[in-house]
Amino acid sequence: MNYISHRLRTTTSFLLLGVSLGVTRAEVRLPGLFSDNMVLQQGMKVPVWGWANDGEAITVSFLNRTASTVARDGKWRVNLSRLEARSVGMFTVSTKTQTIQYTNVLVGDVWICSGQSNMEFPLSRSYASADDIAAATNGLIRLFLVPKLKAEAPVADVKARWELCTPESAARFSAVGYYFGRALHPVTQRSFPSPVGLIGTYWGGSPAEVWMSHQALAADSRYQAEILAPADKAQQSLRRAVADFEKEKAAAEAAGTPFTKRPPRASWIPSELYNGMIAPLQPYAIQGAIWYQGEANAGRAEQYRSLFPDMIRNWRSAWGRDFTFLCVQLAPYKVIQAQPGESDWAELREAQLLATKVLPKVGMAVITDVGDEKDIHPTKKQPVGERLALAARAIAGAEKIPFSGPLYRSMKRQDGHIVLTFEHAGDGLVAKDGDLKGFTICGEDRKWVWATAKIQTKDTIIVNSPEVPQPVAVRFGWADYPVVNLWNQDGLPATPFRTDDFPLITAKKK
After folding, report:
1. Fold of domain 13-107
2. Per-residue H/E/C for 61-91
């Protein structure tokens, strides 16, 4: 494969004629998502769009696909018909006076990689990544990093370009995203490697509501009251604080006195990252999205039970299709507690799990084995990306492979015990490294105690405690930092869960 640097080829004869006649023409232009080395999505129509003078006739060609249109209101758009994976060629956009060519264009699967700091966490900082970085040269993986941008209204373009996957570009990219793409690439389409395009759009510390459109938030009365109204109030307070700060600073300068006060810090504004870092990606054809976020919303986990699915619906509506959406369940974090209790992080994990049940084609990677008590950014990102890739193969690729750890399905009370039944038990449940850990049990008094749990059959576990002769509910891994070891024989950990529906502690926090 010959990798050719970017070229913009423009025929000049008609342009020169236009100049000699005193005619000014705007060149046809495409968004930054279209460049050399890009990956176009296989198996579906591929929108191509841009800007040009009204009435300008535009033709887009790639391999044996051609589509034409005429610009209206300064814009144009065509759809290329379904493309086959692994195709490579020259992508051409032409008018009567201009020809733009992008080289080394591939057809494969395109995935958005988004979220907060654990998605932003670069490969260069990932655990034992030196050898992976050194071996990262891969002509069939392409990377596109969206610049950070907060915007008050949706922006139309993104100033970036597709890059070949090299040690240098991979080291800067999301570790989770890179490991996902690397694991997905060799097995896409089952029988042969297929190109993968990864679009990184992430920002550390960001809550989910900044990744949603204003329209989606304003359509819900709860979000209006709990998200938009407080945000408006906070912005008003910020403007007053900034004005006061500027007055104090000017007065100090006029008096010649030192001024060391720091300027007020802006809080997150709903929709600002959707506007600046998601809207300009639409309607680029994608296979799906991977999402690692939730830490910033843990204190509002009960709200996240609706907010997160609504964000997925928002993105799907914007793209016009129910693409695959895969999330990472929060890793264990914070001090390990000696006694069972409540946890906002456990409630957030449950909210993430709920999204997989209420929406189609939503999957989740469980990472209870790679947390860090003292660091909200666990460095072992390879298992995270690889488990996401399993889910992608199963959900988006329809492969018949194990992709999930054990999931709680049902319970029944029996002779002072509770018997739990699981889905995704695979070839059987496994207690990894000793007896089962992380199970708690309670009676009608709702006082949780540690429980004894034993694997009973291939897909059932029996739980009990002498302290609770008449149990009513069981929880597993219900903690900020769950210490658990239930897996299936396919090598995937079970998600934390609860059998009860007791009130959530985060329901009080609006």
Report:
1. Immunoglobulin-like (2.60.40)
2. EECCEEEEEECECCEEEEEECCCCCCCEEEE
